[in-house]
Amino acid sequence: MNKIYQVTLFVGTSILLFSCSGKIPLTIGQFASCPDKPNCVASKNSDVEHSIEPIYYKGALENAKNDLLLTIKRFSSAKIKKELNQFVHVEFTSNIFRFIDDVEFYFIDPGVIHFRSASRIGHSDLGVNRSRMKRIQMTFNEINNIREKKGSD
User: Fold this and answer.
1) Mean pLDDT in each 10-residue stretch from start to end of the chain (153 residues)?
2) What CA–CA distance (Å, rounded) separates 151 from 140?
3) Contacts of 21 (CB under 8 A, 6+ apart)
4) Which residues contact 18 (CB under 8 A, 6 or more apart)?
5) Collapsed DSSP state (helix, strand, coil) of residue 36
6) Single pTM value for the model
7) Residue 22: left if φ>0, alpha if ψ -120 to 50, beta else—which one?
């Protein structure tokens, strides 16, 4: 009986862990609006629940994109999935349950990086996407300011 319990627990845990990743949304690269769930933030959303300030940068777009990539590399849970001239898609994976959040960065307007960060599955993320994006903003600003100061010296 104990062996059956162990096998059932192992199979159940495996299913739970491997089913938490979800499928890549079809809207990646389209700057979709946030759904009516609290697990998404976006710099182009008008409602307060999902709205967050974009990332502002100084200097050339190419430098800002490099600064963003350096910022992302500081997050061990990040994996860059797609990088184009004016777009970057990153997956962030949670440590325990392996939930995946998709973050899209858009270089559309000069001096501004718009973004959307959303959980693939579930309803609430307990503020994880907003908190992560604020940390990304702070880290990016540090890197961008240091580079700009060196460039102006």
Assistant:
1) 61 47 87 94 91 96 97 97 97 92 97 97 93 98 91 66
2) 16
3) 93, 98, 99, 100, 120
4) 98
5) coil
6) 0.84
7) left
